[in-house]
Automatic annotation (TrEMBL):
<protein>
    <recommendedName>
        <fullName>MADS-box transcription factor 23-like</fullName>
    </recommendedName>
</protein>
<keyword id="KW-0175">Coiled coil</keyword>
<dbReference type="InterPro" id="IPR033896">
    <property type="entry name" value="MEF2-like_N"/>
</dbReference>
<keyword id="KW-0805">Transcription regulation</keyword>
<dbReference type="InterPro" id="IPR002487">
    <property type="entry name" value="TF_Kbox"/>
</dbReference>
<dbReference type="GO" id="GO:0003700">
    <property type="term" value="F:DNA-binding transcription factor activity"/>
</dbReference>
<feature type="domain" description="K-box">
    <location>
        <begin position="86"/>
        <end position="176"/>
    </location>
</feature>
<dbReference type="InterPro" id="IPR036879">
    <property type="entry name" value="TF_MADSbox_sf"/>
</dbReference>
<keyword id="KW-0804">Transcription</keyword>
<dbReference type="Pfam" id="PF00319">
    <property type="entry name" value="SRF-TF"/>
</dbReference>
<dbReference type="GO" id="GO:0005634">
    <property type="term" value="C:nucleus"/>
</dbReference>
<keyword id="KW-0238">DNA-binding</keyword>
<feature type="coiled-coil region">
    <location>
        <begin position="62"/>
        <end position="99"/>
    </location>
</feature>
<dbReference type="InterPro" id="IPR050142">
    <property type="entry name" value="MADS-box/MEF2_TF"/>
</dbReference>
<feature type="coiled-coil region">
    <location>
        <begin position="163"/>
        <end position="195"/>
    </location>
</feature>
<keyword id="KW-0539">Nucleus</keyword>
<dbReference type="GO" id="GO:0045944">
    <property type="term" value="P:positive regulation of transcription by RNA polymerase II"/>
</dbReference>
Length: 269
């Protein structure tokens, strides 16, 4: 009779489990040795029992086998990482290419192109998208115009304030000029009055206030004893300020009139 097939599972009985471990451990070590000899392979075997006891086998040296294993493992891991990274970026490129194609198709549809393959529902969705986009554009435009209007109002207010300040400065300058003119006029008037008060009174002609009048007597005629045809009229008239247009009341105007006066006098005793 052949041996029955043993189920590959944990042996509950500790004694049976230990016996089985000893048998199979010996067979495993024997197979590792045969593999290294027959196939000229570098073999390293490490086994820990359930009680923590170590069993190992190395065809050359366990240290060299472990170092070679670590080195090859790192190289393999790097290769696997590079390959995995390349595959990852390939998937990313494919995904981005699909997104680009979708966006290009949507852009053409928004521009009114390639609409033949769309149904009523898709066209309605496209219309809604266009209306929403147009609404957003109008809102943005209104906001920009509002901001510009506010900025212009602020500039206008600043200019108005500057104009008010300039107007106030001009008024102040006009006021100062008026005061200066008043002072100059008062000083000039005072100077003229001082000069007029210091000048002596003069006898002037009533018709010409600037031309001097000279009074002369004609030469006497010895043989004529007649009285003068007309008397000498000498008058000194005090002119009122109403006729002189606001001149000083203290000024006297004396006029002398000589009408066809011929003095023929002889020696009067």
């Amino acid at each position: 009779m052949g041996r029955g097939k043993i189920a590959i599972r944990r042996i509950d009985n500790s004694t049976s489990r230990q016996v089985t471990f000893s048998k199979r451990r010996s067979g495993l070590l024997k197979k590792a040795k045969e593999l290294s000899i027959l196939c000229d392979a570098e073999v390293g075997l490490i086994v820990f029992s359930s009680t923590g006891k170590l069993y190992d086998y190395a065809s050359t040296s366990m240290k060299s086998v472990i170092e070679r294993y670590k080195k090859l493992k790192e190289e393999h891991h790097q290769l696997m990482n590079t390959a995995s990274e390349a595959k990852f970026w390939q998937r990313e490129v494919a995904s981005l290419r699909q997104q680009l194609q979708y966006l290009q198709e949507c852009h053409r549809q928004l521009m009114g192109e390639e609409l033949s393959g769309l149904g009523v529902k898709e066209l309605q969705n496209l219309e809604n998208q266009l209306e929403m986009s147009l609404k957003g554009v109008r809102m943005k435009k209104d906001q920009i115009l509002t901001d510009e209007i506010k900025e212009l109002h602020q500039k206008g207010n600043l200019i108005h304030q500057e104009n008010v300040e300039l107007y106030k400065k001009m008024e102040l300058i006009h006021k100062e000029n008026a005061e200066l003119q008043k002072k100059v006029y008062e000083a000039r008037s005072a100077n003229e009055e001082n000069m007029a008060s210091n000048l002596p009174y003069t006898i002037t002609n009533g018709y010409d206030s600037h031309g001097p009048i000279s009074l002369q007597l004609s030469q006497p005629h010895p043989h004529c004893s007649e009285p003068p045809a007309k008397a000498i009229k000498l008058g000194c008239i005090r002119r009122a300020m109403e006729q002189s247009g606001g001149k000083s009341k203290s000024r006297l105007s004396c006029t002398a009139t000589l009408d066809s006066y011929n003095v023929q006098a002889s020696a009067i005793k």
